[in-house]
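User: Predict the structure for this protein chain, please.
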Amino acid sequence: MKHFIELKDSRLDLQAMVTMTRKTVADQGYIVFRNFHYDLNDLEKTKNLFIQLCEMVGTPISHDQHGSIVWDIKSNPNSTGPVKTYSEHNHQAELHTDSQYSFYPEDMFALLSLQKAKCGGGLSHLKSLKNILNRLKALPDGDEITRILSNTDFPFIVPNVFKKDNSKKYEFNFGPILRNNEIRFRIDTFEKAFQIDNSFCSEEQISAYGKLKKVITDDLDLTEFMMEPGDLIIINNKTMLHGRSSFTDSNRHILRIRMNKHAKGQRKGEVQ
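Assistant: Here is the predicted structure, written as structure tokens:
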């Protein structure tokens, strides 16, 4: 099945999109729908349609204490804190897992492009866990590296905007980087946590992390493409790492919804 699907009809067949999404995201890690309906003059309608599709694919998860489902990804120069979330700045977002700082990152997420960066930046990057694991296993000590990454806990500092207790200067979460054919990874939240307290990890953990980082940050097995206005991508957050190049156009605007899979037997929003 193709990763990129052109939507040519004016009337969206949401149920067909959901069927394609579930199979492709499970098997291949992501799917992109091009020409999804959006209206910059009626963002409320656009967001409602985006939510409707995501409710059929999975169970949307609120991103803040107010229960908001849709997150606006735009440059925010006024954001403060020791670690900014990638949604708030315009420099490079290295390959990472969404919500890697939480105990259990969401299963998947969707991005809807409203305005791309006219400067030519903001290029999307993807790398699959399958390719990462194959590269690790090819190393002389690949099995040991995989064991350490799977069976020991690594620290992740929580970005300021997602802290549960603002009275604390720093908030951390801990867990393995690899788990049951899943990955949770982000360079800055791990390395910032280790800088704050280097007792969080053993020398063996630091060595394993360094070798994984080298595999992830090279250009091998990297998928790159530009999200055009109207592009909607749904990504498996457990089997794909994603990122983007830096940009200077502050008008770049993307909507994001994070989701978990429906509970067994639950299928919301069947189209009549």
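Residues 267-272 have pLDDT under 50 and may be disordered.
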